[in-house]
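Hi support team,

I've been running sequence recovery on a batch of backbones for a student project. Most finish fine, but this one hangs at about 90% for roughly twenty minutes before it completes. I'm not sure whether the input is malformed or the queue is just slow. I've pasted the C-alpha cells below so you can try to reproduce it. Let me know if you need the job ID as well.

Thanks,
M.K.
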C-alpha cells in the first residue's frame, strides 16, 4: 500500500547554501552568485505564499558572515537593500508579513532603515510569515533569551522554578510561531550552521545536492511532497 500523505509543513526553514560555489563553477564573481541566489529566493517565497505555508525562515546572513572578505560583505549588504526596495510592494500586496531574526543594530544605517521599514509596513499582514535571518546566530539567540529570563528572576517578577518552555520561547525571535517542521539545506552540506537550533528540535531535515541558485520551485515541491509522506512521531511510536 502507498504511504499515507500528511499535511504540508507549517514552518519551513531554508539554509540557502552554495552561492559562492555556483559562481566559481560558472567562473563568475561571488557577488553574481549571490545575485543569482536572490532570484531563487524570490521564486521560493512566491511559491510558499501561494501554497499556504504559514512560516518561511531564510538564513540570509549569519553573525559569522562578517568574517568574509569586505568585497563579499559589501555585495551582500547591497543585495539586502535591493531586495527590500524592489520586492516590498509585491510582498505587501500578497499579505506577506516580514520578521527579521537577528541583531539588526549592527547593520549599516541604510540596511537597518530598510528592514525596519519592511517590518513596520507588513506587520499587520495575515499571509505568509517571512522570517529573514540577518546578523543571526542561534547560540546568541538562546543566550539572550536566557539573560532576559535571568533579569526577570533577579527583579523578582518570577521565580526560577516558574520558568517554562513557553516563557523561554517568548524570548526568542520566533515568538508566537510554530517550531520548524521542515529544514532544507541546499548544496548537500550536512550541518545546521548555528541556525534555529532550538526551533529545529523535531524538524524533518533534507539536504538536496543542488546549489542554492539551482534550487528550483520544482525541487522545492518535491521536498514538500517528501515531507508529506513522512510519519512524524516526536519520540513516540505509532504501534
Amino acid at each position: 500500500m502507498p504511504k499515507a500523505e500528511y499535511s504540508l509543513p507549517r514552518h519551513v526553514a531554508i539554509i540557502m547554501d552554495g552561492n559562492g560555489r555556483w559562481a566559481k563553477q560558472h567562473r563568475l564573481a561571488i557577488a553574481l552568485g549571490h545575485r543569482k541566489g536572490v532570484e531563487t529566493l524570490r521564486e521560493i517565497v512566491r511559491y510558499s505564499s501561494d501554497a499556504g505555508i504559514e512560516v518561511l525562515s531564510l538564513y540570509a546572513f549569519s553573525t559569522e558572515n562578517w568574517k568574509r572578505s569586505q568585497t563579499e560583505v559589501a555585495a551582500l549588504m547591497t543585495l539586502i537593500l535591493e531586495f527590500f526596495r524592489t520586492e516590498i510592494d509585491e510582498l505587501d500586496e500578497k499579505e506577506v508579513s516580514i520578521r527579521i531574526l537577528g541583531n539588526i543594530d549592527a547593520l549599516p544605517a541604510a540596511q537597518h532603515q530598510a528592514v525596519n521599514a519592511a517590518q513596520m509596513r507588513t506587520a499587520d499582514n495575515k499571509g505568509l510569515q517571512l522570517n529573514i535571518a540577518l546578523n543571526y546566530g542561534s547560540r546568541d539567540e538562546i543566550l539572550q533569551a536566557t539573560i532576559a529570563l535571568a533579569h526577570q528572576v533577579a527583579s523578582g517578577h518570577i521565580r526560577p522554578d516558574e520558568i517554562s518552555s513557553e516563557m523561554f520561547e517568548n524570548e526568542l525571535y520566533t515568538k508566537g510561531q510554530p517550531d520548524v517542521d521542515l529544514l532544507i539545506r541546499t548544496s548537500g552540506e550536512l550541518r545546521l550552521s548555528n541556525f534555529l537550533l532550538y526551533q529545529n528540535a523535531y524538524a524533518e531535515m533534507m539536504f538536496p545536492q543542488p546549489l542554492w541558485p539551482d534550487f528550483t520551485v520544482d525541487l522545492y515541491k518535491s521536498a514538500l511532497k517528501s515531507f508529506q509522506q513522512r510519519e512524524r512521531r516526536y519520540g513516540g511510536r505509532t504501534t
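--
Follow-up from support: It reproduced on our side and the slowdown came from queue contention, not your input. The chain has one domain: 11-137+179-228. No action needed from you.
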